[in-house]
Predict the 3D structure of the following.
Amino acid sequence: MHTLNLTQSSPVTFSKSTNHRYSINASSLLNPNLISRTHNQTALFNKPSTQIGLLTTKVSNFGQIHGYPFGRSSRSTSQIHDSGFRRDHFDRIHENQFGFCSKSGSFITKAAASESESSPEGDASAVSKPKPKTLQLALVFGLWYFQNVVFNIYNKKALNVFPFPWFLASFQLFVGSIWMLILWSLKLQPCPKISKPFIIALLGPALFHTIGHISACVSFSKVAVSFTHVIKSSEPVFSVVFSSFLGDTYPLKVWLSILPIVLGCSLAAVTEVSFNFQGLWGALISNVGFVLRNIYSKRSLQSFKEVDGLNLYGWISIISLFYLFPVAVVIEGSQWIQGYHKAIEAVGKSSTFYIWVLLSGVFYHLYNQSSYQALDEISPLTFSVGNTMKRVVVIISTVLVFGNPVRPLNALGSAIAIFGTFLYSQVTAKKAKKPEVEKQN
């Protein structure tokens, strides 16, 4: 119970049922300056919301400590102001390998923003990320390239003695699925929330990913690794053609950039020593599968942009495994036992064969994981250039390891195709960068 005793010459006393008393000079309340004080309070509430939130928080704390009811009402007011503090700030928008935008953002309060505005250093740290150091960038690229080279080498070694690409492709997806489950269970990677619409949206991209992966493995089993990668460098051609059929338009520069790709791949195919139609068609179908995966992902996964690229790749690998393994059993299952014994005889030690197969599965997932980590650290333009140079490193490494004969015209065709891919990446990356800049401004 609170009472208020007010006289002009006596102090004002707030009294409670307890022994606490709070005295205020009544003359100060009747002071003519009260009008000016009211104006000051009105001006205060015209100040930024950060100061209002600070005021209401202090009033709320006072009321809660001393038991006055205005503490509860001002606490709700403070919550209203706090809810107004939050805003979306996207540090960077990039297009990942599945073709949709992966947004890496953070929520920044206006209170923190106001502190940043008063300090240039604070503004730089709150809004923009520091550019990666040269050593860190070199480490990311080096790890990405190394893992890709190791996968291609041991994948080809295993296929040379055990020519069953459906089994190896299934095993690689199995290793990647187990790897992601371990990361999620140990909370080393945040697991996305799984829902029925999310799984349904992944069915299409996972199907095309399965087609692209198994077709590439079939190509690796039939021809030299270098030839498969030269043909796979023609993926931009399929991307432009299929997207054009679906209504997308491209400037003349993009169409001109794919001409060297077509010319180089054609010259490389004609002069390839290990040429095989199954190997050629496998690489071409792989391009079609991955391009359709990218296009379909743009359309079906627009509602799940909060899921990062690595988690999407993990779930696509899991669903692809369920697609691929039953078909692999039907196509090759009856030959696996006999092929296993022949592989052991060819290698000499069963442990050696196990290591080759295991390394092909582990490094298949690792190099894909590193590609997403590289994409998080660098710009899309740098990533596309790095991806083009990766093919060059893989081609040269596998030629040196396996000693595949390379004719001069074959080398020239490969170089033209890779150069065309580089031009395409430059044109498309710059084209995609303009809308992003306009949106930021």
